[in-house]
Predict the 3D structure of the following.
Amino acid sequence: MIEGLLIGLQTVLSIKNLVMVIGGCLIGTFIGMLPGLGPMSIIAIMIPIAVSLGDPATALILLAGVYYGAIFGGSTSSILINAPGVASTVATSFDGYPLTRQGKAGKALTVAAISSFAGGTIGAILLLLFAPALASVALLFHSSEYFALMVVGLSAIAAFAGSGQVFKAVLMTVVGLMLATIGEGALFNMPRFTMGIMDLQTGIGFITLAMAMFAIPETIFLILDPARSGKASDRNSDISNLRISKNEAKQIVPVIGRQSIQGFIIGVMPGAGATIASFLGYAVERNIATREQRNQFGKGSLKGLAAPESANNAACTGSFVPLLTLGIPGSGTTAILLGALIALNVSPGPRLMIDQPEIFWSVIISMYIGNIVLLILNLPLIPYIAKVLTVPRTFLIPFILFFTLMGAYIGQNNSTELLILVGMGVIATIFRFASYPLAPLLIGFILGPMLEDNFSRATQLYDGISFVWERPLTTALLVIAVLLITLPAIFSRIKKEA
Amino acid sequence: MALDRWIALVFALIFLIYGYTAFFGMDHLLAPIMRRNPVWPSTFPKILSVSGLIISMVVLLNFEKSPKVIGDDMSLSNWRQYKLLDALLLILGMIFYAVFLRNLGFIAATFLFLFLGGVLLGERRYLLSLIISGASSYGIWYLVDSVLGIYMTPYPQFVKTLGSFS
C-alpha cells in the first residue's frame, strides 16, 4: 500500500496534474454554482475534454477535481441564494441560507468548506484503508459472481433511489438496460434494435443520455419556474468575512467527525449516495442535539450546516469504493465516471489496483489534494467566483442549454445525437414530473453491457444457467437482490393497508 | 389515471414491441454456428422484455404506495403558473440548433441560439446580448477547435460553396 501511495503521490504531484486538480476544482466550483448544472452534468460536459488529454490518470485527476469543485459550488449556491442545484445540497440550505439572511454568509461558507474538507479527508483515509481490502476479496470472484453482484448493485440502487417507489426505480433500471442493448455490442457482432438508423449502429452515447437525464430537465424546470434560480435580492449578501470563532469551531468538530464516518458508510452502499447521507446526517444531529440547540436548527445553526456538508462529501468519497474495487457505480455521478473510464480504455475493478496502480492511487490522492485546493484556494476566491450568481437568467439558461448540447455533440460528433438528447431530455422532464427516479436508468444503461457480458460468459461456462444454484456465493447474492426489491414493496403495501 | 401510471402503460407497450422483436425478429439472422451457443444476441433482450413488462404492470396496477420524492418540488398540478411557452420555444430552438448546426456552421448557429434564446427569455439589452453571443460563439469555437483539436465546421455551408466557385 505504501508503494501504491508513493506512485499516486508521484503522479499527482507533477506540475501538469497539479494544474489539472486546481483547474478542475475551480471549473467545478464555478459551474457547480450555476443552478441547473449539478456534478453529473458538469462531469459529462468535461468528459470529451478529459479524454482529449490522452493520459487516463491526468483525465481522471481533472474529473475528480471537477467533481469536488462542483459539490462545493453547489453548496455555495445553496447557502447564498437558497438554490440547491442538486438534491444532495438541499439539506445544506436548511441552515446555510438563514445564516446568509442574518448577514453571516462568509461564516456559513467557511463552516461548509471546513466541513467538506474534513468529510472528504476522513472519507479519503477510509477509502485508502478499505478499497485495497475489498479489491483483494473481489479478485476471487468469477463472472457469475460479477453478474450477481451487478444485479445486487442495481437492486440496491433501485431500493434506495426509489424513496419508497422501488418498482418505479426498478422499471427505470430495466429501461436503462434495454437502451444499452441498442446498437452493435462487443459481444455479438450484429446490430440490435437500430431500426435501420445508421447513427444508432454504435448505440446511444452515454454522455447524451446523462445530459438528457439530468441537465435538460433541471434547465427546463428553471425556465418553467423562474423562482427556482433564487431571489436576485439575496445575491448581494456580505461574503467577505470568512472567520469563525474558537467556540464555533469547538461546536462543529464532533459533528464533522460523526457525520464523516456515517456519510462514508452510506456512500459505500450502492444507490444510497450523498443525498441520503446529507439528510440523514442532518436528522441525526438534530435528534441528538440539546433542546436549546435543536430549536436553532433551520434558523442558522452551525451544527445543522456542518452535518450535511461533511456527510455529503464523505459519501461522495465512499461512492468511489464500489467503483474502483468492483467496477460498479454506486451513484449517478460515479456511473458517469465509469463511462469516462471506459472511454479512456480503463477497466475499473479489482485488477485496476494491480494492472494500473498509478491510476488507482492517483485518483485517491487527487481527492485529498482536491480538498486542500478547495479549502486553501477556492474559499478565499469565493467572493469573486460568486459573481457568477449575478448573471441574469436570460443569459444563464441559453448558455446552460448550449453547453449541454455541446457536451453531446463533441462526444459523438453527429447531429442525430443532439436530436436524441432533446427528445430524451423532454421525456426525462416528464419522468421527473411523475416522480420517476432517473439515476437508476443511467446506471442500468452503463452497467448493461457488463451485466450482459458476465451473464453470457457464466452461461457459456456452465452451458446454461445452472451457475445460479451451483455457485453458493452467486445464489446468496441473487437472493439478496430479490429481497432488496421485494421487502420494501411488501412493507409499503402492508403500511398502506394498515 | 395519474401521469406515472400512463408512463407505465407506455413502457408496457414499448416492452411488448421490444419483446416481440427479441422473440420473433432476431434469431433467424443468426449464423448456424452461433446457434450452438447457449447465449444468443436475443437472450438478454428476451429476459429484459419479460421482466420489464411485469414491472410495468406492477406500477400500472398501482401495487406500490407512492409517497412524494425528497427534493422534487415541481408538480404538474401547478402548470398554469409555469412559463410553458418559453420552455416549448427553447426546446424548439434546441431542435433547430441540432438540425441546422452543419448547414449554418458552428459560429452562426451558436450565435443565433444564444442571442434568440436570451431575447425569448426577456433580455432587452440587444447590443450587450449581441456582443456576448458573438464573442462566446467565436471564443468557444476557437477553444474547441484550436486548443482541444476537435474539428467543427465554423462557417455556413454556402461560404464553402462560394469558396469552391472562386
In short: Chain B touches chain A through 75 residues (CB under 8 Å). The mean pLDDT of chain B is 85. Chain B has six helices and no strands.
